């Protein structure tokens, strides 16, 4: 009887420990710390598709098309239902606000957009080329966050422009190539400046399995 009394609690503890371990593994955060990544959920009632046009697209030059394909970790299979969020500065290098922003829009500004990939994994944003920070401390860039259906949101390397004189070799050396290289080569296609970037899920992302 004493043996049974001792064995039952031991089995219960073993089961609880195993369940806790499985839960921890399933909720393990990939990508490390990501301040502001929660903004990826701030699209509110907007119906997402694989294409989005950011505010002020028509009013600014040079207009910019951002396009590419999101692939699964094998780098071959297109990834469906991946949520992508981008935001960037205006032509003065400021994260422009209107004054009525809430949530992360207070810091990111209103020049931002969201898409969700379809079966072909493709995505497209229409916006305009951002300016560097007014003090020249940062080169031209666009921030990007992604969310896979079975993982938490995480950031990728920013979009950076190959022809930007502020993109120094020192900056290039510090890049982690999260999701693949974020350095893009702008080309004029159909009278619009176009950058293409394919994304490989999990590439150089900490804790990704």
Work out the strand percent.
25-35%
The name CATH uses for the topology of the largest domain is: Protocatechuate 3,4-Dioxygenase, subunit A
Total beta strand runs: 12
> What Rg do the Cα atoms give?
21 Å
Total count of domains: 2
Total of DSSP H or I helical runs spanning 4+ residues: 3
Helix content: 10-25%
Biggest beta-sheet profile: 6 strands, mixed
Instruction: Describe the global form.
Output: globular
Give your account of this protein's structure.
This protein is of the alpha/beta class and 209 residues long. It is 17% helix and 26% strand. The chain contains 3 helices and 12 strands. Strands 1, 2, 5, 10, 11 and 12 form a 6-stranded mixed sheet that branches. Strands 3, 4, 6, 7, 8 and 9 form a 6-stranded mixed sheet that branches. The N and C termini lie far apart (45 Å). Residues 9-26 have low confidence and may be disordered.
What's the structural blueprint in terms of helices and strands?
Layout: H1 2-26, E1 51-53, E2 63-71, E3 83-88, H2 105-108, E4 112-116, E5 122-128, E6 141-147, E7 154-155, E8 159-161, H3 169-174, E9 183-184, E10 187-189, E11 192-196, E12 199-200
Parallel strand pairs: 1-5, 2-11, 2-12, 8-9
Antiparallel strand pairs: 2-5, 3-4, 3-6, 6-7, 6-8, 10-11
């Amino acid at each position: 009887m004493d043996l049974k009394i001792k064995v039952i609690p031991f089995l219960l503890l073993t089961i609880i420990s195993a369940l806790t371990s499985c839960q921890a593994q399933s909720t393990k955060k990939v990508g490390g710390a990501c301040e502001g990544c929660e903004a990826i959920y701030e699209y509110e009632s907007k119906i997402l598709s694989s294409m989005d046009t950011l505010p002020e697209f028509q009013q600014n030059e040079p207009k910019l098309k951002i396009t590419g394909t999101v692939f699964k970790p094998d780098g071959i299979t297109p990834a469906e239902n991946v949520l992508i969020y981008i935001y960037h500065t205006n032509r003065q290098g400021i994260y422009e606000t209107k004054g009525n922003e809430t949530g992360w829009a207070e810091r990111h500004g209103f020049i931002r957009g969201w898409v969700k990939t379809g079966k072909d994994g493709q995505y497209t944003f229409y916006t305009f080329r951002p300016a560097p920070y007014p003090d020249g401390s940062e080169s031209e860039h666009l921030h990007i966050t992604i969310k896979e259906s079975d993982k938490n949101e995480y950031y990728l390397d920013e979009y950076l422009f190959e022809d930007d004189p502020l993109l120094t070799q020192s900056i290039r050396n510090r890049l982690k190539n999260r999701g693949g290289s974020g350095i893009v080569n702008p080309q004029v296609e159909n009278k619009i400046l176009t950058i293409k970037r394919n994304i490989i899920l999990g590439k150089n992302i900490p804790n990704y399995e």
